[in-house]
Amino acid sequence: MNKTLITLLKTAVASATFAAVGAQAQLVGDINAGLARAAMCIGCHGIPDYRNSFPQIHRVPMISGQSEQYILAALQAYQKGERRHPTMRGIAGGLTEQDMANLAAFYAQHNGNVQAPETPPRAPNAVVAALLDRGACISCHGANFSSPTDPSWPKIGGQHADYLFVSLKSYWVEGNDVIGRSNPMMRSIVSQFTLQELRLMANYIATVPGELATVPQGGLRR
Q1: Which residues contact 15 (CB under 8 A, 6 or more apart)?
Q2: How far, in Å, CA of 218 to CA of 47, rounded?
Q3: Residues of the chain with pLDDT under 50
Q4: Which residues, 6 or more positions from 68, have their beta carbon under 8 angstroms from its beta carbon?
Q5: DSSP-derived secondary structure for 105-116
Q6: pLDDT digits (tens, 9 = 90+) for 12-65
Q7: Residues 139, 47: Cα–Cα separation, whole Å
Q8: What distance in Å separates the CA atoms of residue 204 and residue 222, rounded to the nearest whole number?
Q9: Arch. (CATH architecture) of 3-217
Q10: For residue 19, what pLDDT is reported?
């Protein structure tokens, strides 16, 4: 995709979400309150390699170590139906804005590595490098895919490949009440790739060392 077009899309998305970001900034998450609320999250996100069967079998994402802004934005998107997944929408639907801020603060503070490893990632082969360049992935998700240029966007370096693939495919879906994600920028980017190309990118990004982790229940810090 033309990088100028991506810049325009990023500007449009940023403008559309300015008010929402301002509202988020007023919320201060409480880590201990987030721990109490996390009991409903641990059954999936607290079990290493736990798999979800919908819409296809894939590992649930590692969320420990994501930024507070991203976790809050993701939960709000599920609540509003901008991200469509029956289980997550049901969970998010029962949360207040403060609940979501508390969960975001909790998960953001107990990542596995604290900082991204200094070891350079394995370079992608020529085919994958060309795909990543076409999608301008680093321009949004940052160096090693772990330094998003907007904190409400996810770190994806080291995330599970099968989850990344399912997520990318979800931006293709329109007009479905239970599957799909409504994000004009990501939809425009993803629409230019085949399924095989999306899988190649997901498989590579999963190999890049990152800051994400799954923290089992016994390892949760108070």
Answers
A1: none
A2: 10
A3: 15-16, 18-20, 219-222
A4: 29, 101, 104, 105, 108, 151
A5: HHHHT--SSSS-
A6: 555 445 444 555 557 899 999 999 999 999 999 999 999 999 999 999 999 999
A7: 32
A8: 35
A9: Orthogonal Bundle (1.10)
A10: 46
